[in-house]
Amino acid sequence: MSIVIGHRGARALAPENTLKGIYMAKECGADFVEVDVRISSDGSLVIIHDDTVNRTTNGTGKVEDMTLKELKLLDAGGDKIPTLTEAADLADELDMGIVIEMKEEGLESLVAQEVDGRNAIVSSFYHASLREIKDLTKVKTGIIISSLPLKPVELALWADADVIFPRLTNPNLFKEAHREGIEVYPWTINDPHEAQWMNRLGADGLVSDKPCQIRKAANEPVKNTGPGKCDYYPCHHFEGQDCTHCFCPLYPCKDPDLGRFIRSRRGKRIWSCVDCTLVHKPKVAKYLTEHPDATTEELKAVDRNDIVPL
């Protein structure tokens, strides 16, 4: 089961980053709502994604060059551009948490003052800004990553973050993050089947443009796992893994002897090793536990008794 976070309110269902979007996210049963924050020319924190108003309103120009009064005169899809205070107050009123993405540097002190005492998470691509937020307030923070860097958990630890918001994931990311007490909220998850898969991997939350569409899937317990259901239980019990999130730490190994590429229901080419039992064999699991950097060739050699674990 994962919490649901409405992306930019409920982007697919209402104008993004508006109070209408926050209301819609609540109607969908979202637990949190995510909004983007920038600063106006007169120092007000406003909710808008782009650095200009061109795409989401009937106006033109840069947000940083416009006063709050000028921004409030614009039509944002039948609603107005809200301030951060208005958005956060509404989330509080609706008994929702709020995820605030800082879209630029230099907002740290203003955002920290606004979120203090609220059920909030401050996120950003600017990881140094999140470190500064942690110096100013005890609010939760989350790094956003659009690629899958070599050591994403180390980035989160450096930023003193509580959450990773990844666009791309793999089983190891969940395992390593949870080992460090860091939550993982993938984005942007709009398909119920993908939501179910993210649940199975161990997602703590799902960021979605379509919170109504994934709410049911997010609520479903992980299936076909646990002592009474897993064909291989008791298995390897790698450190930091329980049976609910028991995935090979080598995934995706792309070893043709152990798996193959398949097409998902949406036509995406993905690596599947669902029929592989190699790492569940006791001597192989023991070797992998003692040699976490082992390759699939080494593990196959162990299985053939070409390498004998000490």
How does this structure look, described?
The chain has two domains: 3-219, Phosphatidylinositol (PI) phosphodiesterase (TIM Barrel, Alpha-Beta Barrel); 243-303, no CATH class. Helix 4 (108-115) crosses helix 5, helix 8 crosses helix 9 and helix 10 crosses helix 11. It has helices at residues 19-27, 68-72, 84-93, 108-115, 127-136, 152-158, 171-179, 192-201, 211-219, 282-290, 296-303, and strands at 3-6, 32-39, 45-47, 97-102, 120-124, 140-145, 163-166, 183-184, 205-208, 260-263, 269-272. It contains eleven helices and eleven strands. The model has no long low-confidence stretch (mean pLDDT 90). The longest helix is centred in the first third of the chain and has 10 residues, at 84-93. Strand 6, helix 6 (152-158) and strand 7 form a beta-alpha-beta unit.
Chain-wise SSE layout:
Elements: E1 3-6, H1 19-27, E2 32-39, E3 45-47, H2 68-72, H3 84-93, E4 97-102, H4 108-115, E5 120-124, H5 127-136, E6 140-145, H6 152-158, E7 163-166, H7 171-179, E8 183-184, H8 192-201, E9 205-208, H9 211-219, E10 260-263, E11 269-272, H10 282-290, H11 296-303
Parallel strand pairs: 1-2, 1-9, 2-4, 4-5, 5-6, 6-7, 7-8
Antiparallel strand pairs: 2-3, 10-11
Helix pairs in contact: 4-5, 8-9, 10-11
How large is the radius of gyration? 22 Å
> What is the count of distinct domains?
2
Class by SSE composition: alpha/beta
Strand fraction equals 15-25%
Q: Name the average pLDDT.
A: 90
What's the tally of helices?
11
Q: Tell me, what's the shape? A: elongated
CATH fold-level label of the largest domain: TIM Barrel
